[in-house]
Amino acid sequence: MNLRFLGAGLVVLACSDPVTSAELDALPPENPNVPIGQYHRAGQPCVVCHNPSGPASADDFSLGGTVFAQAATLVGVNNATVAFTDTTGSQFTTTTNCVGNFFVRKSDWDPSFPIFARVFNSTDEVTMQGQIGRERSCANCHSDPDPSSPEYFSQVGHIFLYGAGETPPPPASDCPVSPVLQ
Amino acid sequence: MKRRVANVSVGIAAVALVARFGGSVVVPAACSADITYDDGGTRVTTILAPDQSQFNTVSPVFERRCGTLDCHGQVGRPLRIYSGLGLRLPNDAGNIPGSSATTPDEITANYRSVIGLQPEQMTRVIAGLDPPDSLLILAKPLMLEAHKGGPAFAPTGDPGAGCITTWILGNVDATQCAQAVAGF
Fold first, then answer.
1. Which of A154, A155, A159, A160 would you mutate first to test chain B, the one with the most B CBs within 10 A?
2. Alpha-carbon distance A156 to nearest alpha carbon in chain B (angstroms)
3. Tell me: domain A36-153, CATH 2.60.40, correct?
4. What is the pTM of this model?
5. Domain boundaries, chain A
6. Is residue B89 scored above 50 in pLDDT?
7. Among B169, B173, B172, B174, which Cα is nearest to B21's?
């Protein structure tokens, strides 16, 4: 019985952070067609779960996000390089997978904020105009709220690599899941 | 219940301080004079603040160094900062983050955020009773006080700190203000 009480106490502790709980509650459900792994939850705030007190704490991220092709579409860009420079000058690069997801494990790079970021491939390059102050989930600022919502004035839109007049390469044909969200 | 008596002479003294620190302005509070209570204590109601006309030069420092969407560019945070690249003042002009330059209304809102963060302490600093870095707008980015956002300014020689300090002291250094946002 004591062990049962101890278990109940641990559950209460795990859910005691109202911020984390609210962020978790706000996430949409998993796409049943996408297994949990590197391709899941494209465009969503990765570090809500991938942090020391989150449900994916075993895979703790310093940063995570998704690169899409263009402003008007949600098609993931494969094999784009995402380069970061932190406030000490330390640099780290990673590469997007076929749905556009990228992530930096804290065990690989634990940066000092603020951080500067740019995304590029062999044809295009986009440099973030401001710095990342402390947010580890790109999607917490880079999302597309409805114009009627208050968040419309505080979100900068999803990350994209190609301009409106360009024709991006087609989505990766060998991707295990669909890189097209919309 | 305490009986409050307006002490006009203290109010006049506040105006005299403005005359002494010519770069500053008086922001009228709810009452135009300070108030003395029965216990002899004085509650200052007049606010001294740095010059708003010079803030156009200073606002970009707050915008670029403090006002990212994940820090003070959030509606729920104190020292709320609006900017062209960050949080936008709600508008009907279609201004969203990254779409256009900071507007005059947003600069005014930033000024109000800055002077309203610690009005009493700001008054003491403008009056020359305390140094500028006693204000949170400098103490926190310089890590003289705990700051969740870390050292937003270098501990010494950061032009951002220089810009804000010279503005508070009444003679803003535009060169330092420009240097503070270069590369940000």
1. A154
2. 5
3. yes
4. 0.81
5. 36-153
6. yes
7. B169
